[in-house]
Amino acid sequence: MTEINWQAQIFYPALAVLQLLPLISAVVILYFKDLKLTRIIGFSTAFIELLISIHLYYNYELSNPAMQFAERLSFFGFTYHSAIDGISLLFIMLATLLTLLIMFYALLRTLTGYSTMFAIFLIILSSLMSMLVTMNLLWFAIVSALQIIPLAYLTNRWSSSPVKDLAVTRYIQFMLISFLLLFSAVMMLGWNYADVTGYSFSFDLFELREVQISIESRTVIFFLFFYAFAIRTPFFPMHGWLPVLMEHGSIAVAPIFLLGLKIGIYGLLRFVFPLFAETIMQWQLYIVAFAVTGIFYAAVLALQQRNLRRLLAFAVLSHTSVLVIGIFTLGHEGFQGAIMMSVNYGIAIAGLLLMIGTVFGHTKTMLLSRLGGLFPKMPMIGITFFVAGLAIASMPGTPGFDAAHLMLENAMHRFGALITIAAALGNVVAAAFLLLAFQRAFLSPEQGSGTKKIPHIRLSERALALIVLLIILAVGFHSEPWLRLIETPVNQLAILFK
Hints:
The chain is mainly α. It has 20 helices and two strands. The protein has three domains: 135 residues; 103 residues, no CATH class; 223 residues, no CATH class.
């Protein structure tokens, strides 16, 4: 990320379209509120977004270290500045893919009020696109705050839990704290820029990189950023909102947006690592120590859960800690593995959530004590749940396998055997509790009334499961293009820590 390449353009403002098209479509859906029109506009918009991201992929210059497809415009004293590299592009493609899967799931579940739901999906997609392409830290922070509202609405509106208000309140509390920390860090950076240069405030990443920050201020600003993104990711011990939201919030729609796309990891890689390389190297071992603790803390709690959704929350927490170890190896292979692991987790977590959402739709329970004997009645759902669980544990044939290999190799080089073994054991424990959940829900004898009268599994539900399964296997067996996509920007990032 050494410069902006203004020559790497295509014939239309693709990044602006990625941000504005979903927002415009959401307004149209909310205005007409026609169910047929909602389906057409919703799926068409998400599919067009995916096509645009694919078009960007085929026009992206893999060997060029500069940010590409740049767009810049000044108005009313504010500068719109967007550009992407291979890391941004990979996250963009993942976001559009997950949105399509969520729309398909919502349609299958015939959830009430899905005109409003589809509009919210598109608003969230628009906000994600803005966060993934912007070079302006203040805009990133503002959009992250605005995103809290639709995600909280999704969590509350389509939850059947009697204590869903607790989940929404806890989520809003933590996200507001995250925003306040992030906003404070951004404003301190802008003030430092104005103080050093004598100009007005600037929040542009490239301009901020040109000025020095005092050692004392650097440490404070770094930890404000780190805690803000740790809450959002979430990373132990800033995860208090996650178990409650997973158990009592909406089953799949909001959690997939929150957990499928690791925007906290992206924020660290895009903004924090380029600005605070020296500070990160100073605090690296302390953060990794917390990550190792988080792996086993979450794994032990996961093994004690009786609710399948709550179990998955601790699975997410455990593997987020593995991700943090990967990016804080501060090496080329570690960065590459962590980014690919983020993609793997995004697809795998979405798969698990969609499958347990389907199970809940038929059984009306997530208690393992009331499940059992599901596999003969919904084999395609069971197979996809099983493979998604293996993907979480980074088994061969899934996207996490190459990622875990790269991360562990770099962790061995950077930290030695102890931390590397701990990270590897974390994957082993994850495999244990996810396979235990699969065994109890799908393979064990019927344990209660939850699975006695399951209606016929529809073809469309089996189709969704098959699509998720094929995506996991396709990315797993064909990971080389994605590794090439992020090779150059990862190399630029790793140079900062040599």
